[in-house]
């Protein structure tokens, strides 16, 4: 990559930064749930914001954040009884959670009734749909469940279209308060992990093995699922660039010799883009990944391919929960696949994690009901149960996460009734393991937004393997 190109990107970034907010651009960790969203805690209380700057929904959220689940439920019953609730989200399971929520409200008031409709826009159209709805004095959608922290930050939050509500019980379970917590409210963290077929002799023992010569991992194209691009952005953060550097240092000399020229090639770009001391390792890995991955349209087919006898030596980066739906048959077995990070001695990143976030729309027609529904999903096992059956999907509420594990026992998902391991790949090590031992790369919306133009433009100039192969 030529120095001039990266320099131009940096110059443009400096101009754009004049209008940007002055928050930090590096993810931090404090508690396990802070790590889920990689946000830092700020001490300035939301209650101290000038009241004149608050919308009517802001005022309701501020009041709702001091209420218990039952108090919110009573407000919801009063507001929405006999009405229709419209929600929109990236996950269709919001539609599964809504009738459970209605049953909960009916346990308080048996006469309560509410119709509902849940929409799931395709092809990332949710941002356009919410933007259009925001132009109305009173919107159609009461709330949303949405992913892609980068676009949420830049298109939805900075513009005031979406508002964050932090339930009292959720904050308490995470050892904080609504006033102290700064960041989006995650329903859950989902992980995509590196896997490979084991029917041949090839073993992947280092994250650099997935970008080695003639290795073409199956991966949802970054233009099809934008959170995949956020994964690449996050690799340039100091923490994850260091993971890549440490993994590189653990490689044998012959493998280092293959990667070293690429690292040298992008060093100037890393400097021009303002990355940290290990930024070149991040850019080199990104460059090799983009120029080598085999673009796919969905994680399901990737999983279905990797578990077959005929997928010898193939690999991929895909949603962990897809393994749950694999059925054993002739030529198909979960024993044909390994989760790379579970292997002893594996070095480097094991995958990446991104969140489903919950927001109230700023022109919500039913803001109290939206807050109650959000609290129900994040603070009760029943509310999270629509997502709870999936391994690799971790509630952001530690108390709910424990209850879900006790019910579904994902850590023993690959064992038989006698306690014997049948499919080790299905024994979920859990969120804490993935964040620490598994070196999961966690999406930080603020960091992604801060580098989306610079690093993002750099990535756009790379030639994809699928394009080069045509």
Secondary structure class reads alpha/beta
> What is the count of helical runs?
20
Indicate the low-confidence ranges by residue numbers.
Answer: 1-51
Largest pleated sheet = 12 strands, mixed
Q: In total, how many beta strands?
A: 12
Oligomer: single chain
Task: Give me the Rg, rounded.
Answer: 23 Å
What labels would you give this structure?
470 residues; alpha/beta; twelve-stranded mixed β-sheet; globular; disordered N terminus
Structure description:
With 470 residues, the chain is an alpha/beta fold. It contains 20 helices and 12 strands. Helix 7 crosses helix 18 and helix 14 packs across helix 15. The radius of gyration is 23 Å and the shape is globular.
Write a short abstract of this structure.
This protein has 470 residues and is α/β, with parallel strands linked by helices.
What topology emerges from the helices and strands here?
Blueprint: H1 3-17, H2 32-37, H3 56-64, H4 69-80, E1 84-89, H5 94-108, E2 115-119, H6 126-133, E3 143-146, H7 149-157, E4 162-163, H8 168-173, E5 185-197, E6 218-220, H9 227-235, H10 238-249, H11 253-272, H12 279-290, E7 294-296, H13 299-306, E8 315-319, E9 337-339, E10 351-361, H14 367-379, H15 381-388, E11 393-395, H16 398-408, H17 431-435, E12 440-442, H18 445-451, H19 454-460, H20 465-468
Parallel strand pairs: 1-2, 1-3, 6-7, 6-8, 10-12
Antiparallel strand pairs: 3-10, 4-10, 5-8, 5-9, 5-10, 5-11
